[in-house]
Specification:
The chain is an all-alpha fold. It contains 11 helices and no strands. It is globular and about 60 Å long.
Length: 243
């Protein structure tokens, strides 16, 4: 029995380290984005302690950029909360996709795992699950691998937003260095990992067009909801059509 326990513990550690290694290259894009956000937060008046509190408690970069963009003194709390909810609404769909894979976990483990979910960890975990499933490995979803990825992203995000908050007042607007392009570059890499076929990319394209049009025509963060609903609707319709 002790041998079985040691074997399972060794397997979990191996999978956790595999997640750590897989996440490290992506942090090269996460870190610059964190610096930009931290610098913007400092320029809006947040202190060196408030920056990591924000990024650590609301671990969702897109909504944090939106919140900082709307930040005033005093802040419009309801407006910021509403926009944050809209931007983070994609996590509802992402969580629904992840739920069948973690439904066997006790809540004390599932809820912290979902708290650490971000776009990067979600996409990488689903891609890994698909690859493991295709290789005949059961279960396809590896919780230690997912946690390894998530911990790297969480720690990197909090550290570099804090560094951005500390250096922002000195360095000025870090976007002039092109660091704000890190986020789009990350998402392109993630999309490449999820690519299956040109037909399968149609929901992405429809979502992109809907979000782009809404961004141009409607003020606020409604483009996030429009893009998510358009992509989901397209995927539902296309799923019922023959290949």
């Amino acid at each position: 029995m002790n041998t079985d326990v040691k074997t399972r513990g060794h397997a979990r550690n191996t999978e956790f380290r595999r997640g750590l290694r897989a996440a490290l290259p992506i942090t090269l894009g996460v870190a610059p984005a964190g610096l930009v956000l931290g610098a913007q937060a400092a320029q809006k008046g947040l202190t060196i302690l408030e920056v990591p509190l924000m990024t650590g408690l609301n671990f969702a970069g897109g909504s944090e950029f939106a919140a900082i963009g709307l930040w005033t003194s005093p802040p419009h709390i309801l407006l910021i909360a509403a926009v944050t909810f809209l931007v983070n609404s994609r996590h509802i769909l992402m969580g629904a996709a992840l739920a069948p894979l973690i439904q066997h976990l006790p809540r004390r483990i599932a809820f912290p795992a979902l708290f650490l979910m971000c776009d990067e960890s979600w996409a990488m975990a689903l891609t890994d699950t698909e690859q493991r499933g295709a290789a005949g490995m059961r279960p396809g979803f590896s919780l230690p691998y997912y946690l390894g990825i998530s911990v790297v992203f969480y720690v990197t995000w909090v550290i570099f937003t804090t560094l951005g908050g500390a250096s922002g007042p000195v360095l000025g607007d870090l976007r002039t260095y092109g660091l704000d392009m890190a986020f789009p570059a990350i998402f392109l890499v993630l999309l490449r990992g999820l690519w299956k076929s040109a037909r399968g990319s149609l929901p992405w394209m429809i979502s992109l067009m809907a979000a782009g049009l809404t961004y141009k025509l409607v003020p606020g963060a409604w483009y996030v909801v429009a893009g998510a609903l358009a992509g989901l609707s397209a995927a539902y319709v296309l799923a019922g059509k023959p290949q």
